[in-house]
Design a protein that fits this description.
The protein is of the alpha/beta class. The protein contains eight helices and five strands; from the N terminus they run αββαβααββαααα. It has one domain: Ribonuclease H-like superfamily/Ribonuclease H (Nucleotidyltransferase, domain 5).
Length: about 200
């Protein structure tokens, strides 16, 4: 990816130690929001990087392993459902992004964030709309965040199979909404989200 014209337009300097940052799981009704930060190694290019939503699960899994083995540094962090309920989803997402950058074993000189908001960081950062389709480092972060979030849903599905988390990944599908009405909310559900609040016991 990393079209040279796009790099020039954005002012992206390939010689910098740049970290890409993206999130997964803002929209679901259950579980943490995940964020990843990745510093790619220019000497070890990774073919096929793209917005994680445009990749098949099999491709995401393969790229996830390749990114982890070739990146100079990476970190996947999260903000819990409880933190989402306290802070709101936007602020919790920014918190997860901050944790991901701060968790890198190598300090970046610049951070590129997918979207239109930048978390509070100690290094220069810039938001790039549709950055996960424009910059390899953000694409890599989107893949790590998405795969980590999907793995979390699969793990929690083992404890709550009646909700179908492994299939819908926590989004408000018809099957998920029906399960909420029948079984109520799990401890992992985001209680500040309206469909979940609607099934909670009235105080």
């Amino acid at each position: 990816m990393n079209d040279p014209r796009t790099l020039v337009r954005l002012g992206f300097d390939p010689s910098e130690c740049a970290a890409g940052v993206d999130e997964a799981g803002r929209g679901p009704l259950v579980g943490p929001v995940m964020a990843a930060a990745v510093i790619l190694d220019p000497a070890q290019p990774i073919a096929g990087l793209a917005d994680s939503k445009k990749l098949t699960p099999k491709s995401r899994e393969r790229l996830d392993q390749e990114i982890r083995s070739k990146a100079i540094a990476f970190c996947v962090a999260q903000a819990s459902a409880e933190e989402i309920d306290i802070l709101n989803i936007l602020q919790a997402t920014l918190l997860a992004m901050t944790r991901a950058v701060e968790g890198l074993q190598v300090s970046p000189t610049r951070v590129w964030v997918d979207g239109n908001r930048v978390p509070k960081l100690l290094v220069p950062a810039r938001a790039v709309i549709k950055g996960d389709s424009l910059l390899d480092c953000i694409s890599a972060a989107s893949i790590l965040a998405k795969v980590s979030r999907d793995h979390w849903c699969t793990q929690i599905d083992a404890d709550y199979p009646q909700y179908g988390f492994a299939q819908h990944k926590g989004y408000g599908t018809v099957a998920h909404m029906d399960a909420l009405k029948i079984y109520g909310a799990t401890p992992w559900h985001r209680r500040s989200f309206a469909p979940v609040a609607a099934v909670l016991p009235k105080r």
